[in-house]
């Protein structure tokens, strides 16, 4: 079974920040389990995880920013270099 895209993405972000691959995999797994994106004890995505994975990095960044500010996600633009969304 292939890993969900959201898990692969988080693992690669953690490795780029300097974590070794084993540690990055464990931290990513635990983080996504806590957020409800992965089922506990497996790398199977929940319905929420499938939805967030389908959003892609840009959609997730816009969603995070919108949730924090109260604006609509469509009010934001995405910067792929920083993985952040800012108001247009």
How would you describe the overall organization of this protein?
- The protein is mainly alpha-helical and 88 residues long.
- It has a domain at 5-63.
- It has helices spanning 5-16, 21-35, 47-69, and strands at residues 76-79, 84-87.
- Strands 1-2 form a two-stranded antiparallel sheet.
- β1 and β2 form a beta hairpin.
- The longest helix is centred in the middle third of the chain and has 23 residues, at 47-69.
Properties at a glance:
single chain; 88 residues; mainly alpha; two-stranded antiparallel sheet; 3 helices; 2 strands; globular
Give me a quick take on this structure.
This protein is mainly α.
Write the layout of secondary structure elements.
Blueprint: H1 5-16, H2 21-35, H3 47-69, E1 76-79, E2 84-87
Helix pairs in contact: 1-2
N to C succession of SSEs: HHHEE
- Sheet with most strands: 2 strands, antiparallel
Could you state the oligomeric state of the chains shown?
single chain
Low-confidence stretches: none
């Amino acid at each position: 079974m292939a890993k969900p895209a959201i898990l692969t993405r988080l693992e690669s972000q953690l490795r780029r920040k300097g974590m070794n691959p084993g540690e990055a995999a464990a931290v990513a797994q635990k983080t996504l389990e806590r957020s409800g994106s992965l089922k506990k004890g497996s790398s199977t995505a929940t319905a929420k995880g499938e939805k967030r994975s389908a959003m892609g990095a840009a959609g997730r960044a816009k969603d995070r920013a919108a949730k924090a500010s109260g604006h609509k996600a469509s009010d934001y633009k995405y910067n792929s270099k920083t993985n952040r969304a800012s108001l247009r």
